[in-house]
Amino acid sequence: MTEQLTQSDIIALVETKMKHRPKIVEMFKRCYENTLETTIHRHDDGTVFMLTGDIPAMWLRDSVNQLRPYLIPAAQDAGLREIIEGVLRTQYQSILRDPYANAFNEFENFRGHQTDLTEMSGWIWERKYEVDSLCYPLQLAYLYWKNTGETRHFTPEFKQAAELILQTWRTEQRHEELSTYTFVRENSGETDRLPGPVGYTGMTWSGFRPSDDACKYGYLVPSNLFAIVVLGYLLEINEKFYGDDAFAGEVRALRDDIRQGIEKYAIIEDAEFGKVYAYEVDGLGGVNLMDDANVPSLLSLPYLDYCSKDDPIYLNTRRMILSRRNPYYYEGTYAKGIGSPHTPPDYIWHIALSIQGITALEEAEKLEILDMFERTDAGTNLVHEGFHKDNPSEYTREWFSWSNAMFVEFVLSLCGLEIAMR
Questions:
Q1: pLDDT of 17-41, one tens digit each?
Q2: What does the CA dihedral 348, 352, 354, 359 come to, rounded to 10 degrees?
Q3: Rounded to an integer, what distance in angstroms lies between the CA atom of residue 91 and that of residue 135?
Q4: In this structure, how many other beta carbons lie within 10 angstroms of the beta carbon of residue 406?
Q5: Which of 152, 205, 314, 372 lies at a C-alpha separation of 20 to 30 Å from 188?
Q6: Which runs of consecutive H residues, i.e. helices, occur in 149-191?
Q7: How far is CA 279 from CA 166, 202, 221, in A?
Q8: Smallest Cα–Cα separation from 305: which of 402, 411, 228?
Q9: Which domain of life is it from (predicted)?
Q10: Residue 330: strand, helix, or coil
């Protein structure tokens, strides 16, 4: 478990450690308070619905990332524990309704992308299948246990959701033969169209990236690396709370399949950078060398607990994706960093800057990124999705809770406060 601090303790610590950076302190306090003040909807049954921000829906991925900074004070705060457990219950229920959906409605109100050609329901805002959407609730359940000692959330419903996740990932190992998932958004561009054919690799297929943009090739490497991590978490949870030997055997077998697929298809020998991870592959010879700002990303692998910050393949990959070899890496007057095809060219993402800072080895790089945050909030004391590298007043998403939470995590890491991962 992490050091037991309250939210007030944490704010006081940041104020002390960052007293020479009053702008950062103000940004930290505004971002830290924003999520709990603006995104939480409590229900009478104890569940909690968590808005992503300026879109009235709950993403499995975003809701986990929005809560991560509160795992540290949750050990001392019963109210925070109620919120986290309530969100976990909503996540379990959402997965059991449809493991292929990425975003859900608060009620069965038929809002969102109901005209998409896929198996929509009134509960679903969007049904873009993303491997990482199923990884994140497993991550939150595990990290909540490790940071607070609480175990009430390991319910029969959690086990049912975990079994359905495992079944879905198994099916999507052989997407061409076994999957019934389809998705068409009429009158849309390439970012809403499913990738082409894949061959079997052992990895599990994903239709979309964590940006909600379509994959170019169906095996999204950072999401499969994340799946390896959370399958390890599942083994530990099962051993401690469920004791299901058959389930454990299935989890191990899937994890081994994915790991072998990574080693055979996703580690590429690059002439300039050496061994690096591809972003996507198709098992048929297609390889996509890039990185996207959204997490899981290749840049985020140490943050996701997959490898150490000084892992050789990771460092090679990091050098590649923080260079012009990555088509979504931009350098400008105010900042340099990774963007996304989800936003216009030359837009750098605050999420990617936070991840770069958290995973950096050198203090100078961390401080350089802190300087970039001071320059690029457009006077709002909040952070955004993407901003123009030469004009931060041009940005996307006025209210993006995940991005605010990632900035909070970055500042906490600079102050020596990090979420317990084991």
A1: 999 999 999 999 999 998 888 899 9
A2: -140
A3: 11
A4: 28
A5: 205
A6: 156-173, 175-178
A7: 23, 16, 5
A8: 228
A9: Bacteria
A10: strand
Place of tokens 């298809």: 265
Consecutive H or E run containing 108: none
State the pLDDT confidence band at 4, using cuts at 50, 70 and 90: confident
Nearest to 153 by CA among 165, 145, 162: 145
- Chain centroid to Cα 136, Å, comes to 7
In angstroms, the CA 138 to CA 162 distance is 8
Alpha-carbon gap, residue 420 to 422, rounded angstroms: 6
Report CA-CA distances (Å) from 389 to 136, 386, 393, 407.
Answer: 30, 9, 10, 18
CA distance 111 to 352: 30
Nearest Cα neighbor of 265 from 230, 294, 224, 295 is 224
Angle between helices 221-237 and 156-173 (to 10 degrees): 140
CB 126 within 8 A of CB 57: yes
Does residue 316 contact residue 301 with C-beta atoms inside 8 Å?
Answer: no
Residue 234's identity, in one-letter code, is: L
Tell me how many helices (H) and strands (E) the chain has: 14, 15
- Angle value at C-alpha 149, between 146 and 155, nearest 5 degrees: 95
**Two structure tokens written together for 46:** 């104890």
Question: Residue 66's closest CA among 90, 96, 44?
Answer: 90
> Is 216:208 a contact under the CB 8 Å cutoff?
no
Q: How far apart are CA 388 and CA 183, in angstroms?
A: 32
E strands along 293-339, which residues? 329-331, 336-338
C-alpha distances (whole Å) from 257 to each of 27, 193, 204, 216, 253 are: 43, 27, 9, 22, 6
* Rounded CA separation 63/125 (Å): 14
Q: Tell me the CA distances in angstroms from 42 to 55, 78, 83, 87, 114, one per residue in order.
A: 17, 15, 8, 9, 25
CA distances from 354 to 59, 84, 240, 250, 394 (A): 20, 23, 33, 35, 19
**What tokens were used for 64?**
């986990």
What confidence tier does 53 reach under pLDDT thresholds 50, 70, 90? Answer: confident
With a pLDDT cut of 70, the percent of the chain lying above it is 99
At 396-414, the pLDDT tens digits run 998 898 999 999 999 999 9
